[in-house]
Amino acid sequence: MFGSLGLPEILIIVLVVLLLFGAKRIPEVMRALRQGLDEFRRAGTAATEEINKAVNEATSDAPKKPEA
To answer: Which residues touch 26 (CB under 8 Å, ≥6 apart)?
Structure first.
């Protein structure tokens, strides 16, 4: 439905951001966005590690079937 963003679309987005926030506030907005993305990435990594830990514990605690 939606294709990738081209140069005209990106320029329109940048123009709208400039109009909404002004040139002086853009660094603050980008910093806040970066912090939010970093936190999201850390939470995703922590969740993945927790799932892997639970799977490893479940498989190591399971009784092993004798091979025939």
So the answer is: 17, 18
